[in-house]
Amino acid sequence: MIPASILFLVVLSFISSSWGDTIKVNTTSDGYLYLGAPTTVNSTGYYLDVGLYGTPGNHYSIAYAKFDTDLSFLEGAQKIYLALNLRNFVAPVFGNGPTAQYTRLDYPTSGGYFTLKAVPLTSSFPESGVNATWVRDNLISPAAAGTVVLQNSGYYYMDITSAVNNWIANPTSERVLGFVGIGSTPNTWSLNLGTKENNQDLDGTILSAATPMYLFAPPAPVAQSCSVSGNQLVMIFETVPNISYTLKTKSNLSDRDWVTVDSPFVAGPTSTTTLTVPMTDSPGRGFYRLEITQ
Fold it and tell me: Which residues contact residue 269 at a Cβ distance below 8 angstroms, ignoring those fewer than 6 apart?
Protein backbone atom coordinates (compact mmCIF):
# COMPACT_ATOMS: atom_id res chain seq x y z
CA MET A 1 0.00 0.00 0.00
CA ILE A 2 1.37 3.43 -0.95
CA PRO A 3 1.07 5.88 1.96
CA ALA A 4 -0.87 9.11 1.43
CA SER A 5 2.27 11.16 2.05
CA ILE A 6 3.66 9.91 -1.24
CA LEU A 7 1.32 12.40 -2.96
CA PHE A 8 3.68 15.21 -2.08
CA LEU A 9 6.45 13.59 -4.11
CA VAL A 10 4.44 13.56 -7.32
CA VAL A 11 5.06 16.63 -9.45
CA LEU A 12 2.94 17.52 -12.48
CA SER A 13 4.48 19.61 -15.23
CA PHE A 14 2.61 21.04 -18.20
CA ILE A 15 3.85 22.17 -21.55
CA SER A 16 2.74 25.66 -22.53
CA SER A 17 1.38 26.48 -25.96
CA SER A 18 1.19 29.78 -27.73
CA TRP A 19 -2.40 30.66 -28.57
CA GLY A 20 -4.62 33.59 -29.29
CA ASP A 21 -8.24 34.50 -28.92
CA THR A 22 -10.87 32.42 -30.66
CA ILE A 23 -11.22 33.55 -34.25
CA LYS A 24 -14.53 32.94 -35.93
CA VAL A 25 -15.02 32.17 -39.57
CA ASN A 26 -16.80 34.71 -41.73
CA THR A 27 -18.55 32.82 -44.46
CA THR A 28 -19.45 34.80 -47.57
CA SER A 29 -22.19 32.28 -48.33
CA ASP A 30 -23.05 28.75 -47.37
CA GLY A 31 -21.75 27.49 -50.68
CA TYR A 32 -24.47 24.88 -51.11
CA LEU A 33 -23.95 23.88 -54.73
CA TYR A 34 -25.29 20.93 -56.63
CA LEU A 35 -22.57 19.41 -58.78
CA GLY A 36 -24.99 18.68 -61.61
CA ALA A 37 -26.59 22.15 -61.56
CA PRO A 38 -24.08 24.67 -60.15
CA THR A 39 -26.40 27.25 -58.64
CA THR A 40 -26.25 28.68 -55.14
CA VAL A 41 -29.40 27.43 -53.46
CA ASN A 42 -28.81 28.38 -49.82
CA SER A 43 -26.93 31.69 -49.78
CA THR A 44 -28.87 33.18 -46.86
CA GLY A 45 -28.81 30.24 -44.46
CA TYR A 46 -26.54 29.42 -41.59
CA TYR A 47 -25.16 26.05 -42.57
CA LEU A 48 -22.50 24.47 -44.70
CA ASP A 49 -24.10 21.48 -46.36
CA VAL A 50 -21.51 18.95 -47.47
CA GLY A 51 -22.18 15.72 -49.32
CA LEU A 52 -20.27 12.68 -50.48
CA TYR A 53 -18.63 13.37 -53.83
CA GLY A 54 -19.48 10.91 -56.59
CA THR A 55 -22.83 9.77 -55.22
CA PRO A 56 -25.07 8.62 -58.10
CA GLY A 57 -26.77 11.60 -59.72
CA ASN A 58 -24.35 14.12 -58.14
CA HIS A 59 -27.18 15.50 -56.02
CA TYR A 60 -24.91 16.28 -53.10
CA SER A 61 -23.06 19.41 -52.21
CA ILE A 62 -19.67 20.92 -51.56
CA ALA A 63 -19.00 24.00 -49.43
CA TYR A 64 -16.48 26.66 -48.57
CA ALA A 65 -15.62 29.07 -45.77
CA LYS A 66 -13.67 32.31 -46.11
CA PHE A 67 -11.61 33.70 -43.24
CA ASP A 68 -12.01 37.49 -43.44
CA THR A 69 -10.19 38.21 -40.20
CA ASP A 70 -6.78 38.91 -38.69
CA LEU A 71 -4.94 35.65 -37.98
CA SER A 72 -1.80 37.16 -36.46
CA PHE A 73 -2.87 36.06 -32.97
CA LEU A 74 -2.24 32.48 -34.05
CA GLU A 75 1.31 33.08 -35.20
CA GLY A 76 3.72 30.70 -33.47
CA ALA A 77 1.00 28.41 -32.13
CA GLN A 78 2.06 24.83 -31.63
CA LYS A 79 -1.14 23.48 -33.18
CA ILE A 80 -4.01 25.25 -34.94
CA TYR A 81 -7.37 23.58 -35.32
CA LEU A 82 -10.56 24.27 -37.23
CA ALA A 83 -13.51 23.75 -34.87
CA LEU A 84 -16.46 22.24 -36.75
CA ASN A 85 -19.92 21.92 -35.25
CA LEU A 86 -21.84 19.01 -36.74
CA ARG A 87 -25.53 19.76 -36.38
CA ASN A 88 -26.85 16.62 -38.03
CA PHE A 89 -26.46 14.16 -40.87
CA VAL A 90 -28.74 14.23 -43.88
CA ALA A 91 -29.94 10.77 -44.79
CA PRO A 92 -32.02 10.72 -47.99
CA VAL A 93 -34.80 8.14 -48.12
CA PHE A 94 -35.10 6.81 -51.68
CA GLY A 95 -38.06 5.40 -53.54
CA ASN A 96 -38.16 2.04 -55.27
CA GLY A 97 -35.76 1.00 -58.01
CA PRO A 98 -32.01 1.41 -58.52
CA THR A 99 -32.33 4.86 -60.13
CA ALA A 100 -35.12 6.24 -57.94
CA GLN A 101 -34.70 9.72 -56.45
CA TYR A 102 -35.07 10.34 -52.74
CA THR A 103 -38.54 10.96 -51.41
CA ARG A 104 -37.71 12.69 -48.12
CA LEU A 105 -34.81 13.56 -45.83
CA ASP A 106 -34.12 12.38 -42.29
CA TYR A 107 -31.85 14.32 -39.92
CA PRO A 108 -30.17 11.87 -37.54
CA THR A 109 -27.65 13.29 -35.10
CA SER A 110 -25.68 10.07 -34.59
CA GLY A 111 -24.71 6.86 -36.31
CA GLY A 112 -22.81 8.26 -39.29
CA TYR A 113 -19.21 7.79 -40.37
CA PHE A 114 -18.64 10.71 -42.72
CA THR A 115 -15.10 11.65 -43.77
CA LEU A 116 -14.81 15.38 -44.41
CA LYS A 117 -11.86 16.79 -46.36
CA ALA A 118 -10.80 20.45 -46.27
CA VAL A 119 -8.56 21.94 -48.96
CA PRO A 120 -7.01 25.43 -49.03
CA LEU A 121 -8.14 27.07 -52.26
CA THR A 122 -5.65 29.10 -54.29
CA SER A 123 -8.36 31.37 -55.67
CA SER A 124 -11.78 32.56 -54.55
CA PHE A 125 -14.59 30.08 -54.56
CA PRO A 126 -16.57 30.73 -57.77
CA GLU A 127 -20.15 31.81 -57.37
CA SER A 128 -21.04 29.93 -60.55
CA GLY A 129 -19.45 27.44 -62.90
CA VAL A 130 -18.77 24.79 -60.29
CA ASN A 131 -19.03 21.34 -61.82
CA ALA A 132 -17.50 17.91 -61.39
CA THR A 133 -14.30 18.99 -63.17
CA TRP A 134 -13.83 21.95 -60.82
CA VAL A 135 -14.42 19.73 -57.80
CA ARG A 136 -11.91 17.15 -59.04
CA ASP A 137 -9.21 19.73 -59.79
CA ASN A 138 -9.67 21.88 -56.68
CA LEU A 139 -10.94 19.53 -53.96
CA ILE A 140 -10.38 15.87 -54.85
CA SER A 141 -6.89 15.94 -56.41
CA PRO A 142 -5.07 18.46 -54.14
CA ALA A 143 -3.63 17.44 -50.79
CA ALA A 144 -5.89 18.04 -47.82
CA ALA A 145 -5.36 20.74 -45.23
CA GLY A 146 -6.95 18.18 -42.92
CA THR A 147 -9.58 15.46 -42.67
CA VAL A 148 -11.90 14.34 -39.90
CA VAL A 149 -14.40 11.50 -39.46
CA LEU A 150 -17.71 12.71 -38.02
CA GLN A 151 -19.85 10.21 -36.12
CA ASN A 152 -22.20 12.17 -33.84
CA SER A 153 -23.45 15.72 -33.56
CA GLY A 154 -21.19 18.11 -31.68
CA TYR A 155 -17.82 19.80 -32.10
CA TYR A 156 -14.91 18.20 -33.94
CA TYR A 157 -11.42 19.61 -34.42
CA MET A 158 -9.42 19.35 -37.64
CA ASP A 159 -5.69 20.02 -37.50
CA ILE A 160 -4.95 22.60 -40.22
CA THR A 161 -1.76 24.05 -38.72
CA SER A 162 0.19 24.05 -41.98
CA ALA A 163 -2.54 25.81 -43.96
CA VAL A 164 -3.02 28.59 -41.39
CA ASN A 165 0.74 29.11 -41.02
CA ASN A 166 0.90 29.55 -44.79
CA TRP A 167 -1.90 32.15 -44.66
CA ILE A 168 -0.08 34.03 -41.91
CA ALA A 169 3.21 33.95 -43.83
CA ASN A 170 1.45 35.14 -47.00
CA PRO A 171 -1.05 37.77 -45.86
CA THR A 172 -2.27 38.52 -49.41
CA SER A 173 -3.14 34.88 -50.13
CA GLU A 174 -6.68 33.60 -50.34
CA ARG A 175 -7.96 32.42 -46.97
CA VAL A 176 -10.56 30.00 -48.20
CA LEU A 177 -11.18 26.37 -47.35
CA GLY A 178 -13.21 24.13 -49.63
CA PHE A 179 -15.02 21.14 -48.12
CA VAL A 180 -15.98 17.85 -49.74
CA GLY A 181 -17.08 14.45 -48.49
CA ILE A 182 -14.70 11.62 -49.48
CA GLY A 183 -16.24 8.74 -47.55
CA SER A 184 -19.54 7.91 -45.89
CA THR A 185 -21.37 5.00 -44.27
CA PRO A 186 -24.04 4.68 -45.51
CA ASN A 187 -22.79 6.15 -48.77
CA THR A 188 -25.86 8.32 -49.38
CA TRP A 189 -25.36 10.60 -46.37
CA SER A 190 -24.39 14.24 -46.32
CA LEU A 191 -24.17 16.57 -43.32
CA ASN A 192 -24.95 20.05 -41.97
CA LEU A 193 -22.21 22.07 -40.29
CA GLY A 194 -23.07 25.12 -38.20
CA THR A 195 -21.19 28.23 -39.30
CA LYS A 196 -22.76 31.37 -37.85
CA GLU A 197 -25.35 32.24 -35.26
CA ASN A 198 -28.22 30.03 -36.22
CA ASN A 199 -31.88 30.82 -36.55
CA GLN A 200 -33.24 27.54 -37.76
CA ASP A 201 -32.20 24.03 -38.58
CA LEU A 202 -32.95 22.62 -42.03
CA ASP A 203 -35.70 20.48 -40.59
CA GLY A 204 -37.35 23.49 -38.91
CA THR A 205 -36.11 23.02 -35.37
CA ILE A 206 -35.41 26.35 -33.66
CA LEU A 207 -31.92 26.50 -32.21
CA SER A 208 -31.24 28.45 -29.03
CA ALA A 209 -27.47 28.73 -29.23
CA ALA A 210 -24.89 29.76 -31.80
CA THR A 211 -22.77 27.03 -33.33
CA PRO A 212 -19.85 28.87 -34.91
CA MET A 213 -17.04 27.39 -36.92
CA TYR A 214 -13.74 28.91 -35.80
CA LEU A 215 -9.97 28.61 -35.64
CA PHE A 216 -8.17 28.16 -32.35
CA ALA A 217 -4.96 26.96 -30.73
CA PRO A 218 -5.65 24.75 -27.72
CA PRO A 219 -4.40 26.03 -24.36
CA ALA A 220 -1.96 24.00 -22.30
CA PRO A 221 -3.70 21.20 -20.37
CA VAL A 222 -4.59 22.14 -16.80
CA ALA A 223 -4.41 19.71 -13.87
CA GLN A 224 -7.52 19.57 -11.71
CA SER A 225 -6.42 16.94 -9.20
CA CYS A 226 -3.91 14.21 -8.43
CA SER A 227 -4.37 11.27 -6.05
CA VAL A 228 -3.06 7.79 -5.31
CA SER A 229 -5.31 4.75 -5.48
CA GLY A 230 -3.61 1.50 -4.56
CA ASN A 231 -0.46 1.32 -6.66
CA GLN A 232 -1.74 3.81 -9.22
CA LEU A 233 -1.46 7.55 -9.69
CA VAL A 234 -4.75 9.12 -10.83
CA MET A 235 -4.57 12.52 -12.57
CA ILE A 236 -7.47 14.58 -13.88
CA PHE A 237 -6.77 17.20 -16.56
CA GLU A 238 -8.84 19.86 -18.24
CA THR A 239 -8.70 19.00 -21.94
CA VAL A 240 -10.38 19.91 -25.22
CA PRO A 241 -12.67 17.22 -26.71
CA ASN A 242 -11.34 15.39 -29.77
CA ILE A 243 -7.81 16.81 -29.41
CA SER A 244 -4.88 14.35 -29.30
CA TYR A 245 -2.67 14.42 -26.19
CA THR A 246 0.43 12.56 -25.01
CA LEU A 247 1.42 11.96 -21.38
CA LYS A 248 5.17 12.07 -20.71
CA THR A 249 7.32 11.51 -17.65
CA LYS A 250 10.79 11.96 -16.14
CA SER A 251 12.32 10.32 -13.10
CA ASN A 252 14.36 13.46 -12.43
CA LEU A 253 14.04 16.96 -13.88
CA SER A 254 17.75 16.82 -14.73
CA ASP A 255 17.07 13.98 -17.21
CA ARG A 256 17.54 15.15 -20.77
CA ASP A 257 14.38 13.74 -22.34
CA TRP A 258 10.74 13.34 -21.44
CA VAL A 259 9.61 9.74 -21.99
CA THR A 260 6.20 8.90 -23.44
CA VAL A 261 4.14 6.98 -20.91
CA ASP A 262 1.74 5.47 -23.44
CA SER A 263 0.44 5.98 -26.95
CA PRO A 264 -1.22 9.34 -27.77
CA PHE A 265 -4.92 9.45 -27.00
CA VAL A 266 -7.84 11.54 -28.21
CA ALA A 267 -9.76 13.35 -25.48
CA GLY A 268 -13.38 12.36 -25.11
CA PRO A 269 -16.50 14.53 -25.36
CA THR A 270 -16.26 15.99 -21.84
CA SER A 271 -14.02 18.85 -20.66
CA THR A 272 -11.83 16.63 -18.45
CA THR A 273 -9.71 13.51 -18.92
CA THR A 274 -8.71 11.06 -16.19
CA LEU A 275 -5.34 9.33 -16.59
CA THR A 276 -4.22 6.40 -14.44
CA VAL A 277 -0.51 5.52 -14.23
CA PRO A 278 0.87 2.33 -12.58
CA MET A 279 3.54 3.19 -10.02
CA THR A 280 5.04 -0.19 -9.12
CA ASP A 281 8.65 0.57 -10.16
CA SER A 282 9.15 3.84 -8.31
CA PRO A 283 6.11 4.41 -6.10
CA GLY A 284 5.03 8.02 -5.88
CA ARG A 285 8.12 9.48 -7.53
CA GLY A 286 7.92 11.08 -10.93
CA PHE A 287 7.41 14.22 -12.96
CA TYR A 288 4.60 14.25 -15.51
CA ARG A 289 3.42 16.57 -18.22
CA LEU A 290 0.59 16.37 -20.71
CA GLU A 291 1.33 17.62 -24.21
CA ILE A 292 -0.74 18.29 -27.29
CA THR A 293 0.44 15.55 -29.65
CA GLN A 294 2.85 16.73 -32.32
Answer: 154, 241, 242
